[in-house]
Each structure stands twice: as C-alpha cells, then as structure tokens.
Amino acid sequence: MSDERLSVFKTYKLYVGGKFPRSESGRVYEVTDSKGQWLANAPLSSRKDARDAVVAARKAFGTWSGATAYNRGQILYRIAEMLEGRRDQFVREVADAEGLSKSKAAAQVAATIDRWVWYAGWTDKIAQVVGGGNPVAGPFFNLSTPEPTGVVAVLAPQESSFLGLVSVVAPVIATGNTAVVVASEKAPLPALCLGEVLATSDLPGGVVNVLSGRTAEIAAPLAAHQDVNAIDLAGADDVLAKELEIAAADNLKRVLRPQPVDYTATPGIERLTAFLETKTVWHPTGSLGASGSSY
Amino acid sequence: MASAFEYAPAPESRSVVDIAPSYGLFIDGEFTEAADGKVFKTVSPSTEEVLSEVAQATAEDVDRAVKAARKAFETWSALPGSERAKYLFRIARIIQERSRELAVLETLDNGKPIKETRDADLPLVAAHFFYYAGWADKLDHAGFGPNPRPLGVAGQVIPWNFPLLMLAWKIAPALATGNTVVLKPAETTPLSALFFADICRQAGLPKGVVNILPGYGDTGAALVGHPDVNKVAFTGSTAVGKEIARTVAGTQKKLTLELGGKGANIVFDDAPIDQAVEGIVTGIFFNQGQVCCAGSRLLVQESIQDELLESLKRRLTTLRLGDPLDKNTDIGAINSAEQLARITALAERGEAEGAERWSPACELPTSGYWFAPTLFTNVTQAHTIARDEIFGPVLSVLTFRTPEEAVAKANNTQYGLSAGIWTEKGSRILAVANKLRAGVVWSNTFNKFDPTSPFGGYKESGFGREGGRHGLEAYLDV
Amino acid sequence: MPTSAPAAAHALTDVASSDSTLRRFLHGLPGVDTVGLEARAAALGTRSIKTTAKAYAIDLAISMVDLTTLEGADTPGKVRALGTKAVHPDPTDRTTPTTAAVCVYPDMVAVAKEAVAGSGVKVASVATAFPAGRVALDVKLADVREAVAAGADEIDMVIDRGAFLAGRYMKVYDEIVAVKEACGAARLKVIFETGELSTYDNIRRASWLGMLAGADFIKTSTGKVAVNATPANTLLMLEAVRDFRAQTGIQVGVKPAGGIRTSKDAVKFLVLVNETAGEDWLDNHWFRFGASSLLNDLLMQRQKLATGRYSGPDYVTVD
User: Fold this and answer.
1) Do A281 and B453 count as a contact with CB atoms less than 8 A apart?
2) How confident is the model at residue B3 (pLDDT cuts 50, 70, 90)?
3) Which of A14, B78, B205, B247 could form a disulfide with B200 if both were Cys (CB 3.0 to 4.6 A apart)?
C-alpha cells in the first residue's frame, strides 16, 4: 500500500548557530546522484551565509572551548549514539550521494560512526600527549598546554561526503574549536543531514555550522575573514587551495593544505594538532622560605 | 641616579674580539664574495662606527647556498643521530668557550648592554645547542612516531634583536633533526652569524650543512622563494611574515613564523608590588624593548594605579643608559637609525593622540641611536600606542577595574604572543592564564626563556613553536 | 609598663591601636615573591664598582661598620683592643675613616666607651637578653637600662620571634615600644633574626611592625643563627624603610648583620642601598654593617687601591 503513497520530500537547509535557515540568498542548486538523477535542491550559500556562520561559530567558541574535555567527549560520543539510531537513513543518503552499493555505503556509515567514537575518546587525552611540564633551568614551574585555535573553516572533502566530512570536522571540534563547514559541493546532503543529528546531540548551537553551495564561492570569504583563525583546505583543488592560502595570510590563519588521505584508515593525531595552539605558563617556585636552599 | 655614589666607568674590554675589516658569505664551508661583489657596512649603533664590510648575497648566491645545503643534506641526514648530536655538543661547548668574545661582539653590532649579552643571550645560545644536541639521537622517542624524517633544506631568516640567540633557535633544532640550513641574518647585525660560521669550522661541521648569507630583505625573499627549499622559518615583523606566508602558499614548504606582539602585563591590586615593578621594567626595557614578547602594555588595576606608577617612575630613575659595553649599563642603544625613527614617530603619535608622556631625567649620548625609557599614561585601547607594536623602550599604561575587563583588554589585539599576570592569588593566576590568548604567559615573572620551554604565538603573532620537544616538529616531516 | 603607646604621630599612628588593626595592617602589606626578590638582589650584585667608585664605597663601608664582639669570652682587654681598632682601623694610614660603632654586650659598654672616648665612634650594646630574648620583659628592660646607664649610644634589641611566629604581633609591638622608652636618647636597633622568621612575607611584616613601634634601625640578625644578612633580605628591608618614609616622613636605618665578610659583599650591599632606598641612606647614620672580620678585608682592599699591590693579613691588625 505504501507504494501508492506519495512521499514527503525534505527541504534541505543549512545548519547555522543551532538553527536551520534557508540560504540568505534564497537560492538553491540541484543535487543529483551519480547517475545524474535529481535528488534534492540544496541551499546555495552566499557570502552572507558564510559571515553569519562565522559569527555563530565565534559566539559558540567561548562556551565550547571552556567546556571540560570530558564533557566534549561525552557530546561527541552522543553524536555517535544518535547516528547509530539513524544508520539506515545515512546509508541511503551516502549510497545516493556517492553512487555506492548499499553494503559499501553501510560500511562508510559504520566507519563514520566509529570515527566519532575515536575522537570522543581523544578529547581528554590529547593535552597529555602534546602538553607537559618543561624542566627549565631555574626556579620556575613551567607547563605547556594545548588550546584550541578558535574558529576553523573546514572545506570538507569533495569525494567522501560523509566519512571524509566527519574525519575533518570531528578533530576540529574535539579540541574545542568551532567550525564553519563547507559541505562537498556535489554531494552536500549527508552533511546537511548531519546537522540534524548534531542539533539533537547536546552539541551547543554554533559549534558546527554547515553550509552547502559552491565551495570556491563560500571558501573565498572564509579564507579572507579576519575572525576566522584557521582553515582546512581538504576540499579544495590545488589552484583554489593556493588562492585560499594566499588570502589566509592576511591574518595568518593556520592552514592545513590538501593532501591525499585514506579516510578508511585509522587517523593519527595530525588533524587534532593542526588546530591547536601551545600555551606555556611560567610561575616562580623558589624555596620555601628566606632561609631555604637558595642560599 | 644618586649623585653621592657615582659608578665609575666599568667597560668590558673590547680587545677580546677581533673583527676583520671585511667578511664574505659562508657557503659550502668557505667564505666567498657575493656574485656581484656587492658589500654593505655594519655599524655599531651606539657610536655609528663602521665595524666591518660584509658581502651582500644575491639571488645567485642564494641558489649556490641552497645547492650546497641540498648536497650536504644527503650525508648529513644519513648520519646516525648520535653523530649529529656530537657536532652540536661541540658547537655548544665552543660557544661557551668563546662566550665573552661573542658577547662583546654582539653588544658592538647590536647596541644592547653587555650585561644582557653576557648574562642572557650567550648562556641561552649555548644552552639551546646543548638541549637540541641531546634530541638528535632520540627522535624516535619524541612522540612523532618511529623514525621521523627531516624535511631537507631549511631557509631561515632571523631578526636583529637577538642575533645569535635567534640563530640558535633556528639552527639547533634544524641540524638535530637532520636538516641542512641556509640562514640570513639581519642586515644590521650580521657579524655574530659570521663568527658562528667560524665556530662551525672549528667544530668540524661538514661543509654545506650550515650556510650563512648576509643581506637585506631581497636576499631573504630569494631564500624563502627558492623552489628547492623545503622549510621556511622566519622571525621578524608581522608584515613580512604575511608576505612570506603568501610566498609559500601552494607549495609543500613547511612554514613557521614568530612575529610581532603587544604583550599585556596585568597587575592586580594584590600583586607583589616590588617584584611587579621589576617585572614591568624587565618586560619593556629588556633589550631596549626591542623584543617581540615585550610587555608593552601595562594593564594596572585602577585602585593601585597611583602607587604603582609612583614606584615604577622611581625605579625608572635608577636605570642607567649609555655605553653598552659598560657593565653597569641597563639601557643600550636602539639598533638602527630606521628603528629609532619608527619609535620616535610612534611616541610622537602617542602624544598627539593625547596620552601623557613621561621619561626619567636621562642624558642621551650625542652619537649613535638612543631613546630614553618612556612611559605613557592615560592610554586607552583606542590609542595607536596601545595597538601597534613599537619595538622600543616605550610602555603604554592602561587601567582596568575587574579581572574580566583585564582579560578582555589583554586579548583585544591582533597579536597573541605573550602576557604577564601579577597577583598573589593562585586561583586568579590560573583563571586568567587560562583565558589569555597568548602563547607564553608569565605569572609573577616576565621575559623568561629556556631551551626546554616552547615559545611562539597565537593569532597574528605567528604559528609554530620554538624550544622544547614542540620545537622539533617544525623540522620533521610529521 | 606602657601599652601600645604610639611611637610618633604620623599617617599610620592608628594602625597599632588594637591587636586586630595591627594584624590587618601587617597582613595587608603586599606579598613578596621569593624568586623575583632574589633575582633583583642578584642582578644588583652584578654591578661593577671600579676605581673611584670603589674607593668611595670602601671608605663608606668602613665608616658604616659596627665593629662587633659578642662572645662569652669577651674581656676588657679584648674590648679595649676592638675600640682602638674602631678609632684607628689602619694604623699605617690615618686617613682611614673610623668605624661607626663598636658593638658589645651591656657589661662591656663602660670599657668600650672609654676606649673610643673623644673619637666620635659610638658604642652600641646588644640588650634584651640577646640573642634568644627569652626572658621576662622587666629583665629585658633592666638589661637595656644597664647598657644605657653605662653610656651606650645605641641599643640593639631582639624581638620575641616566638610571639611573632605565633601571630601575637601586639606583644612584639609593645615590647619594642617599652624598650624604646627605656632607651631614652639612645638609638634603637630592632633585630628580627630574619633566619628564624623564615619567609620574606614575615620579614616585610616584621620590618613594618618594628618601624611602627619606633625603631630607629631595623636589623636583620644576631649573627648567631645559620642564616644571617643576605642581599635579598636586606633589599627587602630597604624597600620597607623607603616605603615607610614615603608614607610617614620618618626615616629609619637598616643594618644587615652576620655573614658579610668581604669588601665585594659590602660593596654589593651599598649598591642595594643606593638603588633601592637611595642616597639619603648612604651615610652611617642610616646604614650599618654588623660585622667583625669584614673590616680587615675592607682595609686590605683600601691598601690595594692606594698602592696598587695586593695586601695580606699580616698588614692589618688582628684585633
């Protein structure tokens, strides 16, 4: 009987500041599957959408970077839990988006969920791996700790619409950064659906903002934006990457250049450390008293 | 200065250093002339005396040096780490042996007081080589995975404020990790790098591993832009840093930048006042304030402003400005006429914008480049002198009412290199340090450096860290 | 016994009006960062004092010595010899300044007074059951009165460290006030025994406590414990007298004592004075060295400056 029922189409929307706006431009573009079949209309984000997303990401940065690492880990794990319950939906989305068989798409989705779990576990460990005490030659206590860089623009990989996407977004937010994500241009739907999961996973609004549209168009204002602190160029081709890197120099953004990545392999910590700053704090120790060992 | 107890001149002997009338480029283990034979003069900023004539490297020379470094890279990177370590240990030791000579040389060429070159620069230079020497055969255990590989040829451009120390920060980790280097010292302070070339020869360092190319900005640009350079490391101004970032865009060159700053030194009402005053003085007058991490903005809690400023002014009257070779000199010369002009212009801007200028009574020598220790009160965030890096002995004093306001003002800058916190309350130190967006935070101290301690900035103060285990990353393919 | 009588009317007179106001005041003084204080003292220690400056400093240092003997074995003969040396530190060179004072136990004051008569050299006497100070107040006061009666120009008292460390500041204060009164015209030096107070915060509090109670001098140590005068604790006390004068208009002297043995050390202390309290303190009315062996080293250095040759212990007197 359901065959006879007319299905309800979904209006795909951006995910910005915890809300689901349409593009400020009022424009959409057609998203097709690998065979050219129409799947949906996706919002065609404008420069102003990019700007709004940066404002949302900046606003969320204080809370998110100030949350305990344990709390961030819990929330990242919650995202995995939410995805687990919506596996079928994402298998369908990924199969359509990337032209994969159902089993291959299922493997991608499983790996993606596991990636959230991997990074959920990293939130409260990375500081111990890359930070530590420094044995300075003097009466000082000296400690280096990693801190998030700030607002990171992430150009999601063009090919791997879901596993690749999460592989670049999760490490950015695991350490307390907030992200403005530009979804795969030709396969943005999994990213837009991910927004719906993030919205229901206790992730504060604005920590991840998802834009769809023409990567080059959205990336240019982001790369030049003075309130963006870093940019991951995973989804840019070499020509675009160079242009963006030049624009990024205006406020000395940290730039992660595009490089070949096997997203099915277990990641290292490079994507975590790419968007971390090291803060070193000194404090005098000295002796217990004036008659102490310093004489 | 008290007149009853006049300190007689106590000059360090200049005879410990023998400066040749001319120096060449150091390429592939030999001193050579520049391809076009061009030279430039280096002068002593405290007297304007010409110290020597130095070859000025051209793009052709850069190419020659990069080729020499490339060739040397094959064997140098293939050496067992323990052997590279021994070369670096040798260098560290020779620097210690020759430290008095190098301190006097640096004081002559840079203008900074001998007290600083003797007690800060040179000990830190030797310590830096000693520290990274020890890493050379332990890279497998440095946390970057097994057998991390060097990048290749490192092009390094360093500033004039700590000529030999910045050389050490660049060369020591590069060599320890198996890279070879082409280094351009600043045009106003090339001599200590050329003496370092001699130290490399004494240490028996294989030729081509270290190449020194004195020159101006165009030499640096040629080096940074050279296609066969794998790694670019720069310390200097934010403007040049941005230019370099654009130059290396689209390449595979790894880049680290250590740039400008406008450090906030925050003094709370419960600070250890006498030590805070010392910290403020060290923060802005160490090396005539020509320090990227200088505490150039004093943020003082409004409730203790008067008493703190009174103490500070009294302390400033005891600063001794003059002959940098005199062992009692606290404030030396500004490094160049150009830098002096910049400081002068910014200070005038401060006055023009309505800030109140004060300097202790202080007689400036008639020749050389000098600027009296200066502080500005009634400064707000909107004043140019509270925003632009002055890179001179000029302190801008601002006030705050609450810790939140202190943090907000401290962070309200495009820079993020250093900050200071003065309070006797432990939890406040930790809370404020946590909120400051700066790479180095000194609490109840200032301007402390150590080879084991990572140094570098947030935001437009650059990226990458120098020092410590962190400092290895910039020179490894990880 | 007078209680809590204000030493003099000044801006801080009310501070000692009650135990609680005194405590609040002392605990409200700015803290001292150990590392920063010691670093500043060490940095001033690198000043290079040469030629004319050195000659000036050595003569000044000689003139600031409280030439001291505080032994159980002290005899009139020993004290007479010391007095003679104070008046003529270098018998070969009569241009040598006299020391500031000789410092002896109360029972030796009369002998010392006679030995330095007419020279301008003062006689200082330790009192108040030096060095431990662990007797009843009336015994301490009797000790002081005896010394003053015997002609002491200056009294070096010890504070009750036990009371101080127990937080009974008013007891310490009252004792100083009482001793000050017993001193009459004699100038009072208040010894904190900084080595026993242990922390720099305590030394700063003790300095202010002593000055509030009317000390003419604040003095580091008895010379009888492990840690005596150091550049850092003296620097801290110089900051205290500087700040006290700024607030009250009253100038107080400083006397580091114990452990200062070489001219080089003495000159470092003078640099501390010069660059902390300032030139107003570069006078033996306001700064003293409590020392014994220091004088001979100063004299040898003085001879070296005069002749260009290094001197030796045979060329200075052993008294």
Assistant:
1) no
2) low
3) B205
